[in-house]
Amino acid sequence: VYQVFQSVAKKYDVMNDSMTLGIHRIWKDIFVRKMNPSPGTLLLDVAGGTGDIAFRFLSYVRSVRERQLQRKLRQQQNLSWQEISETYQEDKVKSLGDSRVVVCDINKEMLKVGKQKAQHLGYSEGLSWVLGDAEELPFDDAKFDVYTIAFGIRNVTRIDLALREAYRVLKPGGRFLCLEFSHINNPLLSRLYDLYSFQVIPVLGEIIAGDWKSYQYLVESIRRFPPQEELKAMIEDAGFFKVNYQNLNAGIVAIHSGFKL
Amino acid sequence: KMAAAAAAGSLWRAGWRLWRGRAVVSWQLCPPQRAVQASAVLRRVSDEQKKEPSVSSSQFDLHPNDYQPEQEPQGPHPSYTGQGGQESEDYESEEQLQHRILTAALDFVPEHGWSAEAIAEGAKTLGLSVAAAGMFHSDGSDLVLHFVSQCNTKLCELLKQEQKQVQLGEAEKKPTDQFLRDTVEARLRMLIPYIEKWPQALSILLLPHNIPSSLNLLTSMIDDILHYAGDQATDFNWYTRRAVLTGIYNTTELVMMQDSSPDFEDTWRFLENRVADAMNMSNTAEQV
């Protein structure tokens, strides 16, 4: 798995766009909207190498915070200019409202690409990049509010260990969210999807990234991954409550969510 | 003919209650299968608890005890022991925890409105992460519905107390119009602490996906009020009475929204007039 992602890192984003025809952006947007983070949330994004989820999280939290501040200001209509400028100053310091995201990935190359992207897009505060293995996270217990793993869990060898680690590092009340390719129930769609996956994607991999084998592996790993109900049972086994899943695009992708209660 | 009408009326009412009962069940915050599973484990765990008092009991820790009683004889793996170190014999269900979070969140409504933010703050006071607000709908619907349901329960308690007092002879039975006025006033007074954000709550209750639940809560409240008012009708009046009382309640609520008189005097006067109108209407109908 390590080798695959080393070769894939640089072209990762381009390949994502071409394989999914850009829809992966929408999936990730829906994912963060479902998370609905409030300012002050500490997020751990595992296998989040190039930072897509982390950036979306920061933008979301920033806009929520702005709305909060606007609401506060509207209630303070009769302040003097002095007081208004003071509130502006103190709020600039907390434009994120103490939210932070830690991006953890097993692969240095992916993290490097992610850091470059962050610089390029202008995300400077509230981000940390940590090298780590999902099956054995380098964090203390009960540290994070939300744990996310987007398109990463199928690459983990022992999913149950990763789930247990997720349970460990989450605070009580914390949320586990997982975005992953899953199984389509509809047989017709399923056939079309198979056709697309096995015929088109490796070819694109060869043309764009010069790497047939990695994308062949990718498509096969999607097929091998447990279906929605099975993953839900595994998440419940790790100790999570209120586990449910939401299918996006009829099951091509599914979001699983659970709470540590 | 009268008997047939009475029978039809009671059949209608039975159907009405059945439908309502089902709707109430459908608005439960946790899926039915998990509840059964949780309660199966619950009983076992509480039995186990009696045998091993030294095991640190922690709430919501159902699964470890279920799946690993043999592997970890020294006790369940580290789990949530929050709530200020309280240890209790019973295990709380997910629903009860959700109720507690929502109740705690009510304190934050004046500041944050009926929203996921208030729920997040409520969760924080219970020692949970703010992410726990993700268990609920993101628009604050669950909070409003919870509050309304709580108010209705309180109202029922109040009415039961009053009825007991009348039965014990400690109080006089009120005439119907006085009873209705006092009851609606008592119920609306529960809104006073949240009156500023109540328009927001009303708009949330009118959202399409909330209408079944909010309608159900409203009809059950009206039903309860009329039950305690001594309504024994089994004929068509059953519907008209409920419709009239629903109308009185809703309009008074709206008047209360923009009432700025001291202690809402104008609202209570409005209520008095509406109830008087309704009484006159029914008297006139009888005469005809």
From TrEMBL, chain A:
Component of a multi-subunit COQ enzyme complex, composed of at least COQ3, COQ4, COQ5, COQ6, COQ7 and COQ9. Interacts with PYURF; the interaction is direct, stabilizes COQ5 protein and associates PYURF with COQ enzyme complex. Keywords: Methyltransferase, S-adenosyl-L-methionine, Transferase, Ubiquinone biosynthesis. This is COQ5 protein. NCBIfam families: MenG_MenH_UbiE. InterPro entries: SAM-dependent_MTases_sf, UbiE/COQ5_MeTrFase, UbiE/COQ5_MeTrFase_CS. GO terms for biological process: methylation. It comes from the Eukaryota. One of its GO terms (molecular function) is 2-methoxy-6-polyprenyl-1,4-benzoquinol methyltransferase activity. The keyword Methyltransferase applies. The keyword Metal-binding does not apply. Pfam families: Ubie_methyltran (PF01209). HAMAP family: MenG_UbiE_methyltr (MF_01813). Methyltransferase required for the conversion of 2-decaprenyl-6-methoxy-1,4-benzoquinol (DDMQH2) to 2-decaprenyl-3-methyl-6-methoxy-1,4-benzoquinol (DMQH2).
UniProtKB/TrEMBL annotation, chain B:
This is Ubiquinone biosynthesis protein. It is found in: Mitochondrion. Residues 44-53 have a biased composition (Basic and acidic residues). PANTHER family: UBIQUINONE BIOSYNTHESIS PROTEIN COQ9, MITOCHONDRIAL. Membrane-associated protein that warps the membrane surface to access and bind aromatic isoprenes with high specificity, including ubiquinone (CoQ) isoprene intermediates and presents them directly to Coq7, therefore facilitating the Coq7-mediated hydroxylase step. Participates in the biosynthesis of coenzyme Q, also named ubiquinone, an essential lipid-soluble electron transporter for aerobic cellular respiration. Residues 94-124 form the Ubiquinone biosynthesis protein COQ9 HTH domain. Pfam families: COQ9, COQ9_N. GO terms for molecular function: lipid binding. The keyword Mitochondrion applies. Keywords: Lipid-binding, Mitochondrion, Transit peptide, Ubiquinone biosynthesis. The gene is Coq9. Belongs to the COQ9 family. Pathway: Cofactor biosynthesis; ubiquinone biosynthesis. InterPro entries: COQ9_C (IPR013718), COQ9_HTH (IPR048674), Ubiq_biosynth_COQ9 (IPR012762). The keyword Lyase does not apply. Its main location: mitochondrion. GO terms for biological process: ubiquinone biosynthetic process. Residues 211-281 form the COQ9 C-terminal domain.
